[in-house]
Design brief:
Elements: H1 17-34, H2 39-55, H3 57-68, H4 72-79, H5 82-96, E1 100-102, E2 108-113, E3 116-120, H6 126-140, E4 143-147, H7 154-166, E5 173-175, H8 180-189, E6 195-199, H9 202-212, E7 218-222, E8 228-231, H10 237-249, E9 261-265, H11 269-282, H12 301-316, E10 320-323, E11 341-344, H13 351-354, E12 361-367, H14 370-378, E13 382-383, E14 385-389, H15 394-406, E15 411-414, E16 428-429, E17 432-433, H16 438-444, E18 446-451
Parallel strand pairs: 3-4, 3-6, 4-5, 6-7, 8-9, 8-14, 9-12, 11-12, 14-15
Antiparallel strand pairs: 1-2, 2-18, 7-17, 10-11, 13-16
Helix pairs in contact: 1-8, 2-5, 2-7, 3-4, 3-7, 5-6, 5-16, 6-16, 8-9, 10-11
């Protein structure tokens, strides 16, 4: 479905357990030979994938815009770009990855491919998560079966064509479209799958872990988030609030690491809410096919209904509606478009501060001092990302770095910085386990063997 028009534009096959069996059998048959390929052969294969991907870049970007509603400028700049960025990060890691070495006591330590992998990916950054699983699995020497989201299958089909054209051997990569309860469940429980790598909701991650448990499979999970954004008392308030609100609204709020809880010193709270209101009201909502910095629709009716319900819950629980609110933007009568929304007077026990909304909804919370800010930031079942905004002085930046060490999250961003390609992506607590990207991504797809001589 095109989420801007609510009209179907393509039809794909809905796979079943028999399709999963066939795909797993192909991957199992291909594993012995592919697992023995050399580092040089895998690097050559990744270089060929990069070349074909670059040639089909515009097609990939357009597909993501049509099927999940990311504005075309965002697709060009980020959604499609990560397919190159993550590949480059894995290549850099693979070039020096230590597959075999002697440890301190003289034993031979080997990193060997774990086996046939089931890869289950989401719709919100679709090629991002496909690349973060497929590329390190190839680098490690694994074979695989990919189940992309049924909401965004077109980019995955293009990616399958890219891999075939690049010369990935038959059976090494397999694609089965379908839904989670059918294809995802069959992959998770399949006796010939050695590892499941999943990105999506915490609820689904728990279900996958249960299905995989009888086979004692390795399971890596990248799940939800409710990331705090702490503004220190000496930060540039205008810049920090603007940057934080815009980041929250980016991709229509459909990012697991979005800074959705903005923590502001009590003395600057009213001023911060006014700035956030101005940012929300200045955020343009428009058709994804149009170039520009606007935001597009949510991905589906289900997601639209969920976000609307949570906005209403915020109102019902007593949060102050600073900007936005329920319903579509003015003048819009179709498509899953929502109003960029800001809530003030939020306490950390409110539903909108506890649950991942996955829409352009910012919750603003005041704090008394830095210890209180850290306590609020960590008082969440999630632990994917966190953000800290400091003043310009060395002392303030040192305060921010000290605070970052106290935050229970897998990634902490200071002053608008971002984690580089090749650095570990993942979280604590209900945000999952394992890490994706670079050397850590390759390690997740490896078994460790010790050989005494």
């Amino acid at each position: 479905m095109n989420p801007a028009t609510e009209e179907a534009f393509a039809t794909v096959a809905m796979g079943n357990s028999a399709d999963v069996d066939a795909a797993v059998a192909a991957a199992k048959a291909a594993f012995p030979s592919f697992s023995r390929t050399t580092r040089a052969e895998r690097l050559d294969l990744l270089a060929a994938i990069r070349e074909v991907y670059q040639r089909r870049y515009d097609e990939m970007s357009a597909a993501i815009t049509e099927e999940m509603g990311a504005p075309i400028s965002l697709s060009d700049r980020a959604q499609a770009a990560v397919g190159i960025g993550h590949l480059d990060g894995i290549v850099a890691a693979l070039e020096t990855f230590d597959f075999e070495h002697r440890n301190a006591v003289g034993d031979l330590i080997r990193h060997e491919p774990v086996g046939v992998c089931g890869l289950i990916t989401p719709w919100n950054w679709p090629i991002n998560q496909i690349a973060l699983k497929v590329i390190p699995a190839l680098a490690a020497g694994c074979t695989m079966v990919l189940k992309p989201s049924e909401l965004t299958p077109m980019n995955a089909l293009i990616y399958a064509e890219i891999l075939a054209e690049a010369g990935v051997p038959a059976g090494v990569f397999n694609l089965v479209n379908g839904d989670g309860p059918t294809v995802g469940a069959a992959l998770s429980a399949h006796p010939d799958i050695a590892m499941v790598s999943f990105t999506g909701s915490t609820r689904a991650g728990v279900d996958i872990s249960r299905a995989a448990a009888p086979g004692v499979k390795r399971v890596t999970l990248e799940l939800g988030g409710k990331s705090p954004n702490i503004l220190l008392d000496d930060c540039d308030l205008e810049a920090a609030v603007t940057r934080g609100a815009e980041h929250c609204f980016q991709n229509t709020g459909q990012s697991c690491n979005a800074p959705t809880r903005m923590l502001v010193p009590e003395s600057r709270y009213e001023a911060a809410m006014e700035i956030a209101r101005e940012v929300a009201e200045a955020t343009v909502v428009d058709l994804p096919a149009k170039p520009g910095p606007h935001i597009g629709p949510l991905v589906s009716q289900v997601q639209f209904d969920k976000v609307q319900a949570l906005i209403q819950t915020g109102i019902d629980e007593g949060a102050r509606l600073v900007a936005g609110g329920p319903g579509r933007p003015e003048g819009v009568n179709r498509g899953y478009f929502v109003r960029p929304t800001v809530f003030g007077d939020v306490t950390n026990d409110m539903t909108i501060a506890r649950e991942e909304i996955f829409g352009p909804v910012l919750a603003m919370i005041s704090y008394a001092d830095e210890a209180d800010a850290v306590e609020i930031a960590n008082d969440t079942p999630y632990g994917l990302a966190a953000y800290i905004q400091t003043g310009a002085s060395e002392e303030s930046q040192a305060r921010g770095l000290a605070m970052a060490r106290e935050i229970r999250a897998g990634m902490v961003h200071l002053n608008g910085s971002d984690i580089a390609y090749g650095s570990p992506f993942g979280g604590y607590k209900l945000s999952g386990n394992g890490r994706e990207g670079g050397v850590y991504g390759i390690e997740d797809f490896c078994e460790i063997k010790a050989i005494s001589t």
